[in-house]
Amino acid sequence: MTSQELRINVEKALEEIRPFLESDGGNISLVSIEDDKLVKVQLEGACVGCSVNQMTLKSGVEMTIKKYAPQIEEVVNIG
């Protein structure tokens, strides 16, 4: 998978997750993909101060991204 294909797949994963975040007043954006293994995202809106945002990031966002791009090892929030 090329870096461009990887970025497209990660964006597809975020599009799948976004409606759930938006329903709670939040959002997410892709910041970067480093070494084709690490995805950096920024949680936005209500997600920033949410007490369960790390659980959402690991069990929701990271799991969905890995479904679209299995080579991704970790997803981190830079916010």
Structure characterization notes:
The chain has 79 residues and is of the alpha+beta class. The protein contains two helices and three strands, in the order αββαβ. Strands 1-2-3 form a three-stranded mixed β-sheet. A hairpin with a 3-residue loop joins strand 1 and strand 2. Helix 1 runs antiparallel to helix 2. It is globular and about 35 Å long.
Quick structural overview:
By secondary structure, the protein is an alpha+beta fold. The chain has 2 helices and 3 strands, in the order H-E-E-H-E. Strands 1-2-3 form a 3-stranded mixed sheet.
Report the count of strand segments.
3
Category by helix and strand content: alpha+beta
Q: What about the largest sheet?
A: 3 strands, mixed
Rounded Rg:
12 Å
Mean pLDDT: 93
Approximate strand percentage: 25-35%
Low-confidence stretches: none
Please write out the topology.
Elements: H1 3-23, E1 26-34, E2 38-45, H2 53-68, E3 74-77
Parallel strand pairs: 2-3
Antiparallel strand pairs: 1-2
Helix pairs in contact: 1-2
Q: Key terms for this structure?
A:
about 80 residues; alpha+beta; three-stranded mixed sheet; 2 helices; globular
